[in-house]
Specification:
By secondary structure, the chain is an alpha/beta fold. Helices cover 30% and strands 19% of the residues.
Length: 554
Amino acid sequence: MKTVQEYDYIIVGGGSSGCVVAARLAEQHAGSIVLLETGDATDRNPETMQADGFTDAFANDNVMWDRLSAPQQDCRKRSLYLGSGTGMGGSGSVNGMVYTRGDKRDYDQWPSGWKWKDIAPFFTEVETRLKVKPRAPTEYTETCIEAAKNAGFQQKDGLLDGDLCGFLGYQTMNYDGDQRRSSYMSFVRGQSLDNLTQITNARATRILFENKKAVGVEYIEKGIRSTLRARKEVILCAGALETPKLLMLSGVGPNDQLAEFGIPEVLHVPSIGQNLQDHPNVCVFYKGRKGSDCFYPQLYGFHRVNAQLPLPEDQADTCYVFYSAGSSLKASLKRMLPAVLLPKSVFYSPRLRRWLRKAVDLVYGITPIANMLATIYGVVVILGKPQSRGELRLASADPAIQAHIDPAYFTHPDDMETMIAGVEKAKLIAQQASLRRWGNTGLVTAARTENKVKIQRWIESAVMTTFHYTGTCKMGEDEHSPVDTTLKLKGIEGLRIADASVIPEIAVSAQNAPSMMIGYRAAEFIMASSGATSVNKRTPKKAKNKRSVEGKVA
């Protein structure tokens, strides 16, 4: 049976940005709000609410949305894993809880109204709610800091001042005691938001338009097709890999793709799905003499290794993360091995994936092997300012079929040059005295050779996503940007986009913090356009102690 419900605002996607938009509108009594999320209610996966649960969350199929890329021509024609978090909180409920704003110079590449001075106050508001703070030092992290300083880094903790190049230190993380402080936990859960309704396990299938005005959203929940009607606005927060897909399924996008799949055209927007950016990374692994006492990705550094890039000379182009295998290697193997070892044709087979994961458990059940694996550590090298641009295209008119996603890693030659230089920087760190004392036996080709051709071949075989997808509905003032600087989709009334897809140029750091900042600003724009006055410092009342029920605020 088809049902119709009406709200003032419909928000599609309960991830990092969507939870912020929904909560801010509800706090300020903007009207009735519904938050539509494809994945689970959070209570069904309690590890997504726990600071120590991130490894279990990453290995949990209920909270990860699996995808594979198109074959990457410059990565040995491999189809790479491009998953993301699903369920309330989105990727912010499964990530390592690292909170990074980025560099001031990143935002010099953004349009007017979105420069560092414009957005810093909104970052501060988000940080207050998330209660961000660094983790305590450990013997391993102090060893790594000493090595990095001897390799040319300066120590600076927090890394929120916008000057990142050449610095390394303890990065702020969004946790409080044993609780993860995702946008869902910080803005929605436990708050008194009686005008906000959550609908989970509900896939949006298309946006409804009348005369180029967004008036609602169609979705499927438990096999039943239903309709939400919007009195005021529809806000898309489904992320850079799902927002453009939903737009195209709804008739907004490149008209050749719409015609290919028989989708009636609402508006021809050729730039929807273009400008896809991501941070590819590789990890230079070493074996130490003992296990690490570090269990979080708490130590970050940024540097400039390719002077030829079209960036200011004090702009970092690479990011460095010190990784301890004891923190999450087992969960990472369970998640990533199926994508590495299984052909794309059978990747989604539950039986084969279960077999591979059981194999991981068996290996870790052998004590000598488990103890050896615990001594592994690595320097992760992240390509922070990629010059390559990929695209997302429809693969079917069926909303359940993933889009054709091509991140186009290393299609711009500068990117491989930067990555090779970044690997050499990582090796320089590992060669310093403090890590030699810790133990620095190279475990991968790049750690054992100075030959750049061999390093490049290793990068092509080892590279993976950092899960930082951005740019597919970029905002800007030019004709090639489909979203304006107040996050409205140009040419359509009543529709805004408020997630990482609007980011025009990727920041050198993680994208979770920028996504939440965008969600915060979106609510401010919406309130301003409705004539309401924003109370920027408002602290919401705590909800009474009541259990979450499906479709209601937790």
